[in-house]
Amino acid sequence: MQDFLNRVYLHNTIQDYLIAAGIILIGSLLITIFRKSVLSRLRAWTENTHTRFDNFVVSSFSRFGIPALHIIVIYIGLNYLKFTALANRILIIATTVAITFLVIRFITSSLVLLIRSYFRRRYPDTNYTNEVSAISLIINIIVWMIGLGFLFDNMGYDLTAIIAGLGIGGIAVALAAQNILGDLFNYFVIFLDRPFEVGDSIAVGDKNGTIEHIGVKTTRLRSLTGEQLIIANSDLTSSRIHNYKRQERRRVDFTLGVAYETSTENLKAIPGLLRDIISEHELVAFDRAHFASYGESALNFTVVYNVLTSDFNQHMDLKQTINLRIFEAFAARGIEFAYPTRKLYVVSEQQQENQPQRYN
Fold it and tell me: What single string gives the DSSP state of each residue in 100-145?
C-alpha cells in the first residue's frame, strides 16, 4: 500500500494528490455546511429586521464570499502539489483573475445599492429606474477599468503603454462621438440638477409639452397638439426652460374700462367692489385695483390678483367665475363698460352765419 502511495506522477506522489483532494473536499464540505446552516439562519433572521443593510451583507457574502472561499480552498489544495513554473504561473493568474472578478462585482453591487438607497430616501415618490441604470453603467465601467488595471499590474504588464494606447483611442472616439458624449453628460446634468421631471409641463423656446421620457441622449415631450417632440439633452440644458408644473401661483393682470358717463359715486365704489368679488374665493389672493388712467373712450381701472394653484384648468375656471361676477355686479349698479366711441357735433348753416366774423 505504501508503495502505491509513493508512486510519482508529474512530480507528485499519489499521497500528495490524495492530500490535495482531501483539502479541497473537506474545505468545500465545511463551506457548504456553513452556507446551509449558519448563513441560511442569518438570512432568515435579517428578513425580520427593519434595516436592509444586514440583508445586503448576508446576501453579498452568499453571492461573493462563498465562491471566494471555494476558490481559496481550491488554490490551497492545488498549491500543496508541485508543479512546473508555467503551471504555477497559470494557477496564480487564474486565482487572481477569479478573486478580482468577485471583488469588482462586490464593489459595483455595493455602490449601486448605495445609490438606490439614496434615491429611495431623496425621491420616494419618483421613478428613478432610468437614472440608476445609467449611473450603474458608468460605475461598472469605471470600477472594471480600475480593477483590470490593478490586475494587469499585478500580472507584471506595463500599464503605461496600455494607458497611452487607450488615451489615444479615447481621444479619437471622443472626437467622433462628441455630440453623443455631450448629450450623455447633459443627461447627468439634468439628472443631478433636476430642472424638470417626467410629468412636468415645460416650454422650451416656442415649443411646449409634457415630459414623457428622459433618455441618455434625448428627452421626449408630448405637445399640446398631440405630437411627440424629441429634443437633444444638450439643446435643453442650453435653453431657457419654463416649468409650469412648479408654478405655485398664476398672476392675473388686466385693465377694465368703464364709460365716461359713470357717476363719481360708482367710480369710487369700483375698487372696493372688485376687491370684494376677487376675495370671495379661497384660492385667489387679491393684490390691487385702482382707477389708473383716462383713456380715449374709457376710464381705466387696473386689476391684479393671484390664483394660488398651478393647475391651468382650475386657474381658468376661477378667472371665468370672477369675470362673470364682475359683469353681474356692474350690471346691478348700472355701471356700463366702455367701448370705442366718437361724438360728432353737427353745426347748421344758420349757426355758421350767426357766428361773428373774425379778422386778423
Answer: HHHHHHHHHHHHHHHHHHHHHHH-TTS--HHHHHHHHHHHHHHHHH
